[in-house]
Amino acid sequence: MAALKTVALHEAAHAVVARVLGQPVKLASLDSVLTRHRRGDSKAHRQQAIVALAGPAAEDRLCRHTREERAQLWATVWRIDLANAVGHVDATGGGANLVA
Ligand SMILES: [Zn+2]
Fold first, then answer.
1. Could you list which residues have their CB under 5 Å from ion ligand 1?
2. Helices H / strands E in the chain, number of each
3. Could you report the per-residue pLDDT of 16-31, keeping only the tens digit for each?
4. CB-based contacts of 52: which residues, under 8 Å, 6+ apart?
5. Ligand 1: distance of its center to the CA of 86 in Å?
6. CA-CA distances (angstroms) from residue 11 to 3, 38, 41, 52?
7. C-alpha of residue 37 to centroid of ligand 1, in Å
8. Which of the ends of the chain has fewer CB neighbours closer than 10 A, N or C?
9. For the range 28-36, what are the long-range contacts, defined as Cβ-Cβ under 8 Å and sequence gap of 24 or more?
10. How far apart are CA 89 and CA 48, in angstroms?
11. What is the pLDDT, as a whole number, of residue 27?
């Protein structure tokens, strides 16, 4: 149950932050959150980077992970969020080589 609560909070954070930033949420589930943003728009890409990091940030706040746990999560289950955030930052013309 605790794991399900953590996943729900993680995905809800993506959805809530997207809505706060004015991005329509197409789908929110325990598997993912899909938003709609304007492609090629730097502001939208910056916002999407924030949305991508909102899930891990909320989860970390709830679970109070140790530094080691956080490092493990970034390398595994949070990796797709990190990759999405970097991809959106790259799309603005900055951020290449942020993650080795
Ligand atoms: Zn996520």
1. 55, 81
2. 4, 2
3. 999 999 988 888 888 8
4. 14, 81, 82, 84, 85, 88
5. 13
6. 12, 21, 24, 10
7. 17
8. C
9. 30/4
10. 9
11. 83
Ligand 1 center–CA 93 separation, angstroms = 23
Are β-strands 25-28 and 33-35 bridged in parallel, bridged antiparallel, or unpaired? antiparallel
pLDDT for position 41: 82
**CA gyration radius for the chain?**
13
User: Residue 63 corresponds to which tokens in the numbers above?
Assistant: 């679970």
Task: Taking the CA atoms of 55, 96, 90 and 100 in sequence, report the sign of the dihedral they define.
Answer: negative
74 Cα to the center of ligand 1, angstroms = 11
Q: What is the DSSP string of 24-48?
A: PEEEE-SS-EEE---TT-HHHHHHH
Average pLDDT of every residue of the chain: 88
For residue 15, report the distance from its CA to the centre of ligand 1, in Å.
Answer: 10
Tell me the C-alpha distance between 82 and 85, whole Å.
5
Calculate mean pLDDT across residues 44-72.
Answer: 94
